[in-house]
Amino acid sequence: MTIQPFEDLRTTQPQDAADLAVRPALGAPDAFRRRHIGTTADAQERMLAAVGVASTDELMARAVPAAIRQDEDLVTGLPPAASEREALAELRRLAARNTVRTSLIGLGYSGTVTPAVIQRNVLENPSWYTAYTPYQPEISQGRLEALLNFQTAVADLTGLTTANASMLDEATAVVEGMLLARRASRARTARFVVDADALPQTKAVLAGRAEAVGIELLEADLAGDGLPEGDLFGVLVQYPGASGRVWDPTAVIEAAKARGALAAVAADLLAMTLLTPPGELGADVAVGSSQRFGVPMAMGGPHAGFMAVRAGLERQLPGRLVGVSKDADGAPAYRLSLQAREQHIRREKATSNICTAQVLLAVMASMYAVYHGPAGLKRIAEHVHATASRAASMLRAAGARVHEQPFFDTILVDVADADAALAAARDRGLWLRRVDAGTVGASFDETTDDAVVGVLVEVLADGRGGEPVFVAGGAATLPVQLLRTSEYLAHPVFNSFHSETGMMRYLKYLADLDYALDRGMIPLGSCTMKLNAATEMAAVTWPEFGDLHPFAPAEDVAGSLELIGQLESWLADLTGYDAVSLQPNAGSQGELAGLLAIRGYHRANGDDARTVCLIPSSAHGTNAASAVLAGLKVVVVACDELGNVDLDDLRAKVATHADELAALMITYPSTHGVYEHEVRAVTDAVHAAGGQVYIDGANLNALVGRARFGDFGGDVSHLNLHKTFCIPHGGGGPGVGPVAAKAHLAPHLPSHPFAQEAPEGVRGPGRFGGTPVSAAPFGSPGILPISWSYVRMMGADGLREATDAAVLAANYVAARLGDAYPVLYRGDGGLVAHECILDLRPLTAETGVTVDDVAKRLIDHGFHAPTMSFPVPGTLMVEPTESEDLGEIDRFVDAMLAIRAEADRVGSGEWPADDNPLRNAPHTARAVTDTVWPHAYSREVAAYPFESSRHGEARLRSVRGKYWPPVRRIDQAYGDRNLVCACPPPGAFED
């Protein structure tokens, strides 16, 4: 047997000595950019020749309109590029400026223990964090199963029938619950009642979101006074309350339903192991956060929020919903359900602008539940409650006044001076919560031990009872009538993997089912699936960043505030804006924040009538959904045959709505993948009518270092740090969607009631006055070191080179595939931006082969398909990014050419239209090894469609490193008709 040498398995193209000679030493400041950018100088020469230009400078000069292009000194505020070691050393210095203390602040954020097996095998594993949203379910079965575990755990613990695959955080989940109640309620009123004991950050987010869409909020002490008089469409109950209080809301829920309203309960998942769940109390909706299921606080995020609903409301759920369907062989298979609900289909009729989830964090939370199981979770909850009860008993014994109320994990204590008590606790290594001038709160979690309780008693008793006396137990305070009696997490998956060996193998099994960037290129247009470098990821698990409470004192988070301030400054410089807020924890929230800033600006100027938002027909659907949720009316602007905004139609719409024009939303480069030549004419026309220009930053990877939004007419933009700035997609989240604005809009960017002021001498985050859009002041700070590291190590020159390499890669793909698949839109000189749209409609007309057939056949070649049927049905949008090397790009091109040849064989009649390797793709190992092979093509063609590589060797490395999909093509319609969104019984997989 001949062993194939490792070199033959690489996707990297051969390098000659001259190319290696120009590569810098590993410690050189520009070494990182040479490893981030996949194509070498020699490779780029070959690519430029295929495109027909002499250099990347010439390419960019021809592609980017001269009216917006800036080639010299574009970005001046960034420091010179640092080496990887230098960047990590700087991060260490920033981390050292943070002081981690034991947090007893609570308010929805708890200290937690991330099991090492989950940290190592999920959070730090590129098989999980580099995956994309599971739009291609055949190659996403692992993360879909993990998400189904999450949905099952949430549904079981909340006592409701169906949960979705996660929300962005608790506050936005509550907002979505409010909007769901408004849609589903029989009551014809705009009033929504909010529990006075709801989390304060939730109330702040609710207030801004409700005002924008005309909802009237009424705050009420539901536990003490019940529902206020009058009509209402919904009510929010916090369970347990922010004060720690546990009470029975059944009567309030029944009263709300009697008035035709829906009841939403914001619940603590861990407490639900001991307390009667919301569904059994009569709730229609349960929302909250899964953070305390093994996910670090990380100064506020990222965390997976959740939403669960009673039977009958499943089709009202926002976000992602994983369901069980079947594949072509009838075997059970997972997929995303109810896809017609997505924003790019429903657009301004969408009921939510959230187009993704917090998948990586939901996976961690689900595996925490799997690892501990129902008994383990209950033991943790009992420890938390016992610790809180013991603290209350010891404080009372020491002379302190603890509020008399049932609680799960939080107690309130009267003190002479709350500020002095907080300072004394901080000196002893504790963070407490200030409730008011004479009251502090203490919340306990799975990390709290007896030593912490002893220090707390010393601080709060203030010597009134002498030395603290240790109490072994402490009276349990949960109301007997609210103790849970129902079963939860009974499925075998939650009762099978409690050893580390078992858990490790289960996680490996799931990861092996999936396709992520650690296997090969994911050429998804509009998604920018670029390298997530290991050095960028290093600081994510440092405790100096991960163990910070989002409302910790400013002095203790000085390093993080400085990092946030630096990143805001760098992003402003790169985009040509004056201010940046990092609070939005997804691109959708960044869109919303930008539009709310525009709305706030017009209202501040007395222009309340400016409510029209112009949006091109090509725009991503979240644009329209975000506009509606910001209280704006969408008017669609046509695009011309080249994919550009139709200037005549734009001017006509501007003239028609001149007095009511609030904004125009455009994406640049356009959603069609071209640099629109007349973008300045577009922005000028809107400004002349008094409107503001919102530029969607989804395609910023084609501009950085070459042009800036703020320089060609942009007033505000959101950016996607999970695209251009290297935060991993995580299987569909986490993300960060900062909003950047010109100075006149800056006062209306998101604020937050608990945002920390940077200490003197530290340039911290900006301070703004708009409505908050996320639960935490700075969104998801736990992953900001990733983008900070990327910008710091690339420097201005490296970022510009990355842009050039990305645009070159897209044009190279367009040049090589243009004859086989027409490129639908091209800009000046026949060039595209960083992505290209391949039109498969002529192929379908000629051969019957569909875009789905091509996408699924790519799986047999070992590729994730490009973006399907967006923005144009029947097309594939390809974005190689700058991180892929020429060998991998050519492997994709060769696969697409091979698929074209197979389609031609179908079109000629050589293979039947209903039985060919395209229509039957993807092929599983079981399918090609079955005893019976009834097909008109060979097993070898099915499994190994690799005739030769670019260099002529037989069978690419894909033969040995082949990815085998675990299921065949999935029946999408069956899954929607038969909605099953919880773990199926094991017997479903036995056959």
From TrEMBL:
Superkingdom as given in the UniProt entry: Bacteria
Source organism (scientific name): Amnibacterium setariae
Enzyme's top EC category: oxidoreductase
Domain annotation Glycine dehydrogenase C-terminal: ranges: 802-923
Entry keyword annotation includes Transcription regulation: no
Protein name: Glycine dehydrogenase (decarboxylating)
Gene Ontology process terms (BP): glycine decarboxylation via glycine cleavage system
Claim: Oxidoreductase is one of the keywords in the record: yes
Molecular function in Gene Ontology: glycine binding; glycine dehydrogenase (decarboxylating) activity; pyridoxal phosphate binding
Subunit structure: The glycine cleavage system is composed of four proteins: P, T, L and H.
Family to which this protein belongs: Belongs to the GcvP family.
Cellular component GO terms held in the UniProt record: cytosol; glycine cleavage complex
Cofactor: pyridoxal 5'-phosphate
Every Glycine cleavage system P-protein N-terminal domain range: 34-459, 492-750
Coiled-coil regions listed in the entry: none
Catalytic activity, as annotated: N(6)-[(R)-lipoyl]-L-lysyl-[glycine-cleavage complex H protein] + glycine + H(+) = N(6)-[(R)-S(8)-aminomethyldihydrolipoyl]-L-lysyl-[glycine-cleavage complex H protein] + CO2
EC number: 1.4.4.2
Entry keywords, A to Z: Oxidoreductase, Pyridoxal phosphate
InterPro entries documented for this protein: GcvP, GDC-P_C, GDC-P_N, GDC_P, PyrdxlP-dep_Trfase, PyrdxlP-dep_Trfase_major, PyrdxlP-dep_Trfase_small
Modified residues (N6-(pyridoxal phosphate)lysine): 723
Functional summary from the UniProt entry: The glycine cleavage system catalyzes the degradation of glycine. The P protein binds the alpha-amino group of glycine through its pyridoxal phosphate cofactor; CO(2) is released and the remaining methylamine moiety is then transferred to the lipoamide cofactor of the H protein.
